[in-house]
Every structure is written in structure tokens, then in C-alpha cells.
Design a protein that fits this description.
88 residues, mainly beta, four-stranded antiparallel beta sheet, 11% helix
Length: 88
């Protein structure tokens, strides 16, 4: 019996492979940025694995760093919930 996919993996696969989120951006935790977050356009994502996003330049981003998905206008389409049910 296979393992159930996580919500984040399902959402990212819909955006990348299902073309449901053209122009959208993935919001990530970035420890090197002064803001603490960075955004990556969905068009840059080459592959979604069980544990990582792989970008067009072969950068691997762990899925646990993904905190949201924003549409092309900046409206938040999805956010990760914390253990208390609130967005981070």
C-alpha cells in the first residue's frame, strides 16, 4: 500500500504538471534573505519529488521550506498550516 501524498506535494504537482497556476509563485523560507522568504515562479520548477522541488538550474529546494503559493497578482492561493491550524 502506497503512502499518502502530503498536501503540499499535491498542490505543487497541480501547479507544475496540471498547469493550474500559470504565472504563480511559490513562497519559500530563505535563511539567507533579510526578509526570511523568497519567491520562485512556477515556470522555473522542473520537477516535484516526494521531498524536493527541482528548479531549471538544478537547485533542489526541500518541500518543508514551502510556505505558500501566490497567484500572478500576489493573492495567496494556498498556505501551509502550522500545528495549531494557523498560517506560519
Amino acid at each position: 500500500m502506497g503512502r499518502r501524498r502530503g498536501e503540499i506535494q499535491v498542490m505543487l504537482r497541480r501547479c507544475v504538471y496540471g498547469k493550474r497556476c500559470p504565472g504563480s509563485r511559490i513562497i519559500l523560507i530563505d535563511r539567507e534573505s533579510p526578509r526570511g522568504v523568497m519567491e520562485v515562479e512556477v515556470s522555473r520548477i522542473r520537477k516535484v519529488t516526494e521531498t524536493h522541488l527541482i528548479l531549471d538550474d538544478d537547485t533542489m529546494i526541500p518541500l518543508h521550506r514551502v510556505i505558500g503559493i501566490a497567484d500572478e497578482e500576489g493573492h495567496i492561493e494556498w498556505t501551509r498550516k502550522t500545528s495549531r491550524g494557523k498560517p506560519p
